Structures are given as structure tokens and as C-alpha cells.
Amino acid sequence: PVLREELELRLKSARRLLRLEDHDQLLTSLASFAAVQSGETDVHLKRTREYCTAIAKDLMANEQQLGLTDELVTDLGNISVMHDVGKICVPDGLLQKGGNYSQKEQEIIQDHTTMGGQLFQALYKKASSSFLQLGYEMVLSHHEKWDGSGYPQGLAGEEIPLSARILALAD
């Protein structure tokens, strides 16, 4: 015997999970595309994932007050490969230009954090998952600096989300 209400709830949960997996696959593909476009390799993405995971595991073990969990450590590592996904919005050739960039070119390149953040924010609005919210804060804030000299928001110190600080160190 099956209760109709229970079956409907389980099907709704399963559909939501499948949508999240589709988002993860899409973002991973976009991350690889962005890496290739900017002259990076999948090796950089893999290394960033490993470093993020290692840093987060160490913090979880030695700084319990930060509240890191096994699930969050895994998510940090998985999302880290998507940190430069916004580079798909940077014009072709600019990232491979080499040499010095003009002020305008630097601003265009720096916009990759905002563009990637907007992608995660749009996905979050549709799926409301903590994974996508974490991705948003990491992608948007991974170029912020402790002294406030980073971008895009000029955040300083603990204003910078912990996840973005971990990613910045790993990157």
C-alpha cells in the first residue's frame, strides 16, 4: 500500500534532487570551458579542489568554532572548480593577451567574479539549495583581500565569507 501524499512528496524531492545534479553537471562543464578559454587547464581545477578540501578539513579539525562539517567540506571542494566560471563572459582573446592590461581591460577581467556570482544567484533563485548559495559567495568573493584591496566589493577581514577565503588561498 502507498499513501498518495507520501508518494507525491517523494517524487517532488526526487525531481528537485535531479535538477540540482543537472545544475552541478552544467556548472562543472562551464568551469572547464572557462578554464580552457582563460588558458588554464583541468589540472588547475583539480588542484584547486584538492587544496580547498585539505584546507577546509584542517580547519574543521583544528578550528571547531568555525562550524565546518563533512558535508560543507565536500561542497567547498566541489564548488571550488567553478570559481572562474564567470570568465566565459570575458571577450575571447583578452585572457590570453599577455603583457600589460589597460585599466579598462583589467576591469573587464575582474567582472568575471560578478558574472559568475550572478549565474549562481540565478540558479539559487530557482533551486534554493545551500550548495548554490555557497557557490555564489565563493565565486563572487574569491578575489577579495584581507586588507580590503580586493574586488569586486572591497570586503575586508571577516566580512569576506570563510568559503571565499579558503578558495582564495587554494587558488
Would you kindly provide a written description of the structure presented here, covering whatever features stand out?
The protein is globular and about 70 Å long. The chain is built from six helices and no strands. α2 packs across α6 and α4 runs antiparallel to α5 (130-141). Helix content is 65%, strand content 0%.
Précis, in short:
With about 170 residues, the protein is mainly α.
Task: Give the topology, please.
Elements: H1 4-37, H2 42-62, H3 70-80, H4 103-127, H5 130-141, H6 162-170
Helix pairs in contact: 2-3, 2-6, 3-5, 4-5, 5-6
Main pleated-sheet profile: none
Rounded mean pLDDT is 87
Distance N terminus to C terminus?
Answer: 53 Å
Put simply, the count of helices is: 6
Shape: globular
The H-and-E topology, N to C, reads as: HHHHHH
Strands, total number: 0
| SS content category | mainly alpha
Integer-rounded radius of gyration = 18 Å
List the uncertain runs. none
